[in-house]
Amino acid sequence: MITERVVSILYNVVYFLLNGIPDTIQFPQQLLNSIYHVYDIIFDNIGFLGMFIRLNTIKTLFPLVIVVINLEYIIKLIVWLLGKIPGLNIK
Amino acid sequence: MKDFKKWIPFILFIFLCMLIYSNHGMIEVKALTTSNLDREHSYFTYTLDSENREHKYFLNNSNFISKINDKFYLFGTKIYFNNESSYTRGNLYLTYHFKYYYDITDTNNFHFKDDIYGFSSYYFATHYADIYEEKLYTSIDDKGKYSYDYFITLNFTSTNMCNLLSNCQNDYFWIYSYTKNRDTSKVGDFSIEIINAMYTNEGTSYPFSIEDYINSQSIDYQNPLDQPFQEEVDNSILGYIKRIWNKIVAIGSGLIAFPERIVNFIRDLFSGGLPSWISPWFDNIKDAIIDALEYLFIPDSTFIDSKYQTIKTLFEQKFSLLLVPFNALSELVTRFNNLSLIQTNNYTINIPEFTVPGYSVPIINSTSYDLNNVLSNNTIHTIWILYLDFLDVFLIISFLNLSWNKLNSIIGAQIVDTEGVIVTDTGVFDGETGEYLYSRKNVTTRKTHNWRGVKRL
Q1: What is the ipTM metric for this complex?
Q2: Which of B321, B346, B406 is opposite residue A25, by nearest beta carbon?
Q3: Which pTM value belongs to this model?
């Protein structure tokens, strides 16, 4: 009950603010379809890429590489979060 | 060329990885081949018409390649009794032996003969198998015939036989069951049927249990008995002493467990072991508190979802253009995530039809090229596999190298030993002789534990 009331108040505020903003230009759907068409070409032929490199390796390593490259920021984020916990005294 | 020496360990390492990977692949292929072989079923019945009865059946296959931990047997022995009361279980002695032999002179063919024992070229060995699992079920068939169904799973892995088998590639072996009726007056009263004997070498773990086997047979068995077969009572003095000792051990175990029971009683008292009239009362209060908290603080599951969807629709309506990059990226990640991990071997280039938006005439017609024909050549296929292996190893090592460097740059440190020589030349002009006198001094400097790469966050 209490949570619902609070969320409803926030919802009404956000809705009121958003509703006051004029609509931006609509992105042409045809152009969006063209982007997805390019995706189709890439992912329909990705089996062919498997002839030159194992897709399993790529699929496994790709997220890991992203994590490793951004490891510094991830550690900073973790330390920042831990710093918010009183009593741990992590700076 | 000078730097090539640095690459030698790296190249050797990659070569080693490829070798290990290649051998691993060979082992897998071998295991795959054998797992499809050597599955035999036997079905026969015999009547115990004399005091002792032996039977053997063979598991033979010329393609059999033994492998440690692959041996697995499942026995189902059905024992029929014409009259239940005519049999006491203690009278029946049932055991299984394993024998195997292989032909030293002719390893390619299997010739079974009754007088095979007379052949000196055959090597025999007998081993008892360990019982992995045994269960006894009782059942009564349509004719009212009472029977015991004795299932036994025998484990080869802990016997020497497994090791012996792994040393001889062309061997034949059989399971040898031995049944003895200790009560000679009951000869002919029951018959024994080996309903199924199965051998499999699928993997190192047991692929199914007795229960799974029974369920697969769709037979309605009764509850298993506690003891498959009663042990014979030893009436000798030694047996008597042994029974007394067992009793003493049991009483001792009970005494030791008594304090533990008290502790358990107290623990249970506080964790649900309260008297029956208190427990529901506490449960009701607990439920009421939880319901009240849930009503106050936890919203309905549809409430948040409906609000979110409304805001999302409004947001898309207002900021359609700004959301396009995010939607495109989301679509890309979704498609990448849905990539099948299974290698499809579909090496075909599919070029779709390409048309300019607004015009129906295609600029490029749809075509496809199949490159599987290239890989049908065995040599090219082998080279291709090696190439993929090499690339995998290279990528993994590169990734490890990247991780190591990244970790060092963030929290790690590197110990670098440096060594240098300071050369000091001094020259003095000698006025008497009119010559310059030179002297050179070499000072070797060595700096150890030069920490670098330390970076504070």
Answers
A1: 0.72
A2: B321
A3: 0.35
